[in-house]
Amino acid sequence: MPNSKTSDAIALLKADHRKVEALFEKYESARSKKADIAKQICTELTIHTMIEEEIFYPACRKAGVESDIMDEANVEHDGAKSLIAELENGSPGDEYYDAKVKVLSEEIKHHVKEEEKRGGVFSQAREKDLDLKALGEQMAARKEELMTAFEDNGLPPPVTLTMKAPPLEQQQSAG
Question: Contact at 8 Å (CB) between 111 and 13?
Answer without folding.
Answer: no
